[in-house]
Amino acid sequence: MSDNPLRKSHLPMTSLKSGTVYDVLPDVAGLTVKIVNITFVGHPGNRDDWVLIDAGMPNEHKAIRKAAEARFGQGARPRAILLTHGHFDHVGSVVELTEAWEVPVYAHPQEIPYLTGEAHYPDPDVEVEGGMIAKMSRLFPTDPVDLGERVQPLPADGSVPHLPDWQWLHTPGHSPGHVSFFREQDRAMIVGDAFVTVRQDQLYQVLTQQQELSGPPRYFTPDWDAARDSVQRLAALKPDTAMTGHGVPMQGNELSLGLDVLAKNFDEVARPAHGRSVGN
């Protein structure tokens, strides 16, 4: 790993407990909200100069605001909320947070119908190859949130509002408008569910957070060709640090080599053998 100070990290080496805030890079921290991770981007103590990426599970807005104030200071409020996509575990508290903070939300244009009450995601694929959580996914909500005019499309030029060193990348497959965020300076990547570092359909792995670089959660991924192309695009960027929506962050050779293997063997190791999403 480089001696660039931007690349020094404090990646957690053990499983993440809900409510745990952890430093990943000097200006990037994660917060585990039950089964999902959200990201704070901004230096600690900069009360009004940071952004939130994703908004976690429903009814967690108070915990998220408390964590934000602990990191950035009393009364901390982000410049914006950025969404990787609109699945329930990534936008569960976004309405309450936008009302409390009165800040804009940005997402890919193809995701906006799911954020303005206009469209429902497909039902989870409970027949997909996978473990217990795949079978339990029938209980997961697919109803959209309604942010109204608070949600805006990300800039078409790939720039990220309030994060001039970052770019957004369209990484569909898990959802039509799924995006990831990349900073070339230190090759940091925030990927939502484009790929994850835990087998999210396997109950034991989720409970123990056993680290395994994996494709997107199977029960909520309708387009596997697009998902493969997205992983290959991200792998080609040779990231040094990756924060995922589920699982522990990864860094260095473990990440770059593992992501290369995933990209090259995606159809064999990530694409399910059966299920509605693969036509059998």
UniProtKB/TrEMBL annotation:
Xref: InterPro entries: Metallo-B-lactamas, NDM-1-like, RibonucZ/Hydroxyglut_hydro
Domain Metallo-beta-lactamase, first and last residues per copy: 35-246
Alphabetized SUPFAM superfamilies for the sequence: Metallo-hydrolase/oxidoreductase
CDD domains listed in its UniProt record: yflN-like_MBL-fold (cd07721)
Protein name: Glyoxylase, beta-lactamase superfamily II
Organism listed in the record: Halomonas korlensis
Source species taxonomy: Bacteria, Pseudomonadati, Pseudomonadota, Gammaproteobacteria, Oceanospirillales
